[in-house]
Design goal:
Length: about 240
């Protein structure tokens, strides 16, 4: 009996978008219009690469970035939820699949001492160059027409499950916790015993509802959450079953 918990990061674990939070480091806490308007749909990682160049050019150092990122608030109830999961690791494997980057997620989890809760983090690789500039790369290449070009979360989840099976680990149930449009692809991969937990009022909840209206509902159960306390209540029930 082991459960797999899959978490998105931005607007799920933390109550903000880590990529836009970093703008607080910029001069006057904003980006020039030309840079802001350079984003093209599906190419967020390249856009963030340009943002990091601008921050580097503006003299923003690694320490400044780390200080700023570790002030990002966790979503309501999330600290308690992660402590609860940490205390019950024999029942839960726990991974993050996120369109943020390794540096931001690492800083935030380590500062709050939550890095041990997660078995693996799948996100865009980032690192500081020899000149002190933060650089970010696409997580992988894939052929899914529904997802941004740098990351298909369904592919990540499938590969993880296959690797676990090779190690002899299979899960009684997968619980997927997220909020965004790019969480729909992995949710549509879940089976009838699994559970999707979309955040109330966010894109994922709306897209799942739209599928049901179009009479092509997702196969898994759907439980909406507004605070991480709702997620914890569900996990406590799951343990009792």
């Amino acid at each position: 009996m082991k459960f797999l918990l899959v978490f998105d990061f931005d607007h799920t674990i933390v109550d903000e978008n880590s990529d836009t939070w970093i703008v607080k480091c910029a001069p006057e806490k904003k980006l020039p219009n030309g840079l802001r308007n350079s984003y093209r749909p599906g190419h967020w990682t390249e856009y963030m690469g340009r943002v990091f160049v601008y921050l580097g050019d503006s003299g923003v150092k690694e320490d400044d970035m780390e200080r700023t990122m570790t002030t990002i608030p966790f979503t309501a109830g999330m600290v308690d939820l992660l402590c609860f999961i940490g205390e019950n690791k024999e029942l839960f494997d726990c991974i993050i699949v996120s369109d943020s980057n390794t540096v931001f997620i690492d800083w935030i989890l380590k500062a709050a001492d939550f890095h041990k809760v997660f078995d693996e983090v799948f996100t865009n690789p980032a690192a500081f160059s020899s000149t002190g500039y933060l650089t970010v790369q696409n997580f992988h290449a894939h052929h899914c027409p529904k997802c941004p070009k740098n990351l298909c979360k369904r592919e990540v989840l499938k590969e993880f499950l296959n690797k676990q099976l090779e190690r002899g680990v299979s899960y009684t149930r997968i619980v997927y916790i997220g909020d965004g449009g790019n969480d729909l692809c992995p949710v549509m991969f879940l089976k009838k015993d699994d559970v999707a937990m979309p955040r109330q009022g966010y894109t994922l909840e709306k897209k799942i509802a739209q599928l049901a209206q179009d009479l092509s509902p997702v196969e898994c159960s759907v439980l909406v959450w507004s605070s991480a306390t709702d997620i914890m209540s569900y996990l406590k029930l799951l343990i009792k079953e």
